Amino acid sequence: ALIARREEGKDKGFSLIELIVVVAILGILVAVAIPVFGSIQDTAKTNSLKTAAANGATVVASQVAQQATDTAIGTALTGSSSADYTLAVLPATGITLNNYCVTATATTTGALKGATAAKSGPACT
Asked: Is the pLDDT of residue 21 over 70?
């Protein structure tokens, strides 16, 4: 009788059971999606630090190729830092194309807070 009434067009809409099933399915989807989005954000933070370290290594290589002094290399690297991370190069003196390692470290106030440091360069281990 219920199906016959619906087919006649007298009852329109959804039953309470149908609505509860839809809400339960949406709840399950949200419960699965939240952890996935959290790990995506952490991966993005880590990749951002790796990119910053790689860019810093490029800056150092460019300065060494231009035969810049150690002070000029440090100044160029400091200029490449941002509010989210700081860049440092080792060794501090005697930098050549084969012996430097640039480290990008997240600051405590930036968007990368909690991310680990990343290294780039030929002398990084």
From this structure: yes
